[in-house]
Amino acid sequence: MELKTEGVLVVGLADIMNTDELSVSPAKIAGMQIGDKILSIDYNNVDETDEILNYTKSNGIKDYVFTVERAGKILDLNITPVQTYGSDEVKFGFWARENIAGIGTVTFVDPETGKFSAIGHGISDSGTGALVDIETGTISKANITSIKLGKKGEPGEIIGYILKDEFSLGTIENNTAFGIYGNINKQSMGYFSSDMIEVGKKEEIRTGPAQIYSCVNNEIKKYDVEITKVFYQNKPDEKSFVIKITDSELLEMTNGIIQGMSGCPVIQNNKIVGAVTHVFMNDPTKGYGIYIDWLFDEIYSGS
Known about the structure:
mainly beta, 2 domains
C-alpha cells in the first residue's frame, strides 16, 4: 500500500555542521517537532518535499516562515537555514516526506459495495503516535522476498516490494484507528471474489481453535491458531481477543505474528470474526485481534 499525506510530514530532526564547523539544527531551535505537518513555506502551499527544496535553493539563506499543523493547531515557525560545511547547500535540519509505503494485509472486501478494510489498526506517526492524515492512497499486489523471524522483544517482518508496474487494486479513502479503508477498482474485483465467507458477530466468538488467512510466501493459505481469551466490549477497541499461533508450518516460517500480518482475517466456524492487529512483544506466537463488528462499524458508519 502507498499513501500520500496531507502536507509534508516531519519525520526527523538532525544537526547540520555549518561553515563555522558547529553542529546546529535551525529547525529544532525554532521549535519544529517530529510529527509536524508542513502546510506552507512563506505562505506558499507545499505538497511535496521537492517544492521546499526548489524554493529554498532559489532564495538561499534568509528567514523562512514554515506554517505547520500540530495536534490540530496551526503554527508559524521562523527558521533560518545554515550553509553546510564544505558545500553550497543550505539546510534546516529536519527530515520530511510526503509518501508512506509498506506491506500489509487486506482483511475483507464487500462484494456488494466494493469497500475494503486492511491492516486492522491505524497508520501512526512513529514519533507522536498520532494517526497520519492522508490525502490519497492505493493498494497494490506485492512480491514477498524474505521473512525476518520474530523473537522476544523484536518483532519480525515480511520483506518485499510493491509491484508498481501492475495496476493498483484499489484506492484508499481513510486512515482510522481501526485500519485503512477504501474502494476496490471494478476491474480488480475478480482478484478477491473467489472466496466468499459469512460474517460472524462478536457474540459468536469462543475460546478454542480458529484459523487465519495469511500470505507470507506469496501464497494465500489458512493457518491454525487458537483464540485464548475474549474480551467483552460495548465500544470499538483494536484489542478484542487474544490469539496464539499453533500452526507448525507458520511457526517455522515466521516464529509467530510479524509485521505485515496485521489485518490477516481470523476465521472461526467458517465465519470471519476479526483481524490480527498486534503481536505480544514478549511472545511473538501471541497477539491481539479486533472484532469484525468494529471494522464494519468504522467503514459504514464512520463511528
